């Protein structure tokens, strides 16, 4: 059994630690301290997520970023489409504080709202429908039933023809695949590999929280199909990281 699979089953038996990880000064400070280094490795996929959206580069549109954190995904879209504006939403006051710093150059182009992915009311400002919703590195924090409900809520709040894209990590049920992902990930990022071999209690909590509800790719695509999306694809993949998504049909059918 791989470390990742073993860690996941151990973590499953513990209480959900999402709040203690993401609503803690220390947990968020720890996460933010590694953000610049992590984002350097993600610039290609951040940009691709923006490129996948079917807007003209000068088009004016509003999009929603759920579980937005410091806005790394939203910033990529705001950069690519200079006339776009964003509704960012997250449940963590600490992440929203960090976002105010990271989004300093985007003043006037975004609003940042409180929202709980586990079932909070949809951001009011976007209740009339938006042409794009993105999520990044947060759907894996939700139990499977809620993942499906969230996809259905996103579908319901997209205007016809609107797109949903998700950048996230996935797991695998195959220990050989898990070991192969780990080998390549460790070679590409030896610093993280060294740190994972010697985690502090806070880092271990965050690592376990990260794995708790992570599932393979295919059931997530199935949830998108069940929600009614079309054009569903795995638009990008590298080892355990993926971008998938789909579109609300342009004509109700
Ligand atoms: C790994 S960070 C990713 C942040 C950002 N989307 C990015 O790509 O950098 C996970 C984010 O999900 C948020 N989150 C976790 N559980 C949540 C929940 N139940 N409701 C809203 N946000 C949640 C956390 O506060 C955090 O900002």
What small molecules does this complex bind?
Answer: S-adenosylmethionine
Q: Could you tell me how far the N terminus lies from the C terminus, measured between alpha carbons in angstroms?
A: 45 Å
Strand order of the largest sheet: 3-2-1-4-5-7-6
Arithmetic mean pLDDT: 90
Radius of gyration: 18 Å
Tell me the overall shape: globular
Main structural class: alpha/beta
CATH topology: Rossmann fold
In DSSP terms (H or I, runs of 4 or more residues), the helix count works out at 11
Unreliable segments of 5+ consecutive residues: 1-14
**How much of the residues is beta strand, in percent?**
15-25%
What does this structure look like?
47% of the residues lie in helices and 20% in strands. The chain is of the alpha/beta class and 253 residues long. It has a 7-stranded mixed sheet, with helices on both faces. 36% of the residues are buried. The model is unreliable at 1-14 (pLDDT under 50). Bound molecules: S-adenosylmethionine. S-adenosylmethionine (SAM) is lined by residues 18, 22, 67-69, 72-73, 90-92, 95, 115-118, 136-138, 141.
Question: What's this entry about, in short?
Answer:
The chain is an alpha/beta fold and 253 residues long. The protein contains eleven helices and seven strands.
List the helices and strands and how they pair.
Elements: H1 3-12, H2 18-22, H3 25-33, H4 35-52, E1 62-66, H5 72-80, E2 85-90, H6 93-102, E3 110-114, E4 130-136, H7 144-157, E5 158-169, H8 175-188, H9 190-196, H10 201-212, H11 217-227, E6 230-238, E7 241-247
Parallel strand pairs: 1-2, 1-4, 2-3, 4-5
Antiparallel strand pairs: 5-7, 6-7
Helix pairs in contact: 1-10, 4-5, 7-11, 8-9
Bound molecules: S-adenosylmethionine.
């Amino acid at each position: 059994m791989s470390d990742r699979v073993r860690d996941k089953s151990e973590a499953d038996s513990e209480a959900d630690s999402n709040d203690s990880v993401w609503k803690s000064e220390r947990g968020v400070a720890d996460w933010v301290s590694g953000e610049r280094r992590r984002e350097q490795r993600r610039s290609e996929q951040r940009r691709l997520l923006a490129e996948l959206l079917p807007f003209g580069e000068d088009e004016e549109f509003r999009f929603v970023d759920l579980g937005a954190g410091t806005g790394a995904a939203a910033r990529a879209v705001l950069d690519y489409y200079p006339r776009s504006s964003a509704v960012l939403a997250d449940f963590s006051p600490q992440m929203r504080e960090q976002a105010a710093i990271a989004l300093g150059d985007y003043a006037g182009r975004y609003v940042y709202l409180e929202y709980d992915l586990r079932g909070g009311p949809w951001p009011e400002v976007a209740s009339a429908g938006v042409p794009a919703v993105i999520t990044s590195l947060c759907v894996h924090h939700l139990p499977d039933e809620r993942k499906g409900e969230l996809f259905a809520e996103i579908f319901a709040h997209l205007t016809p023809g609107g797109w949903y894209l998700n950048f996230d990590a996935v797991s695998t049920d195959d220990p050989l695949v898990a070991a192969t992902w780990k080998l390549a990930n460790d070679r590409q990022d030896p610093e993280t590999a060294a740190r994972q071999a010697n985690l502090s209690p806070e880092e271990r909590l965050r690592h376990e929280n990260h794995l708790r509800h992570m599932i393979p790719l295919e059931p997530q695509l199935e949830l998108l199909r069940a929600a009614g999306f079309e054009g569903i694809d795995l638009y990008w993949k590298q080892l355990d990281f993926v971008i998938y998504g789909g579109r609300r049909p342009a004509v109700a059918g």
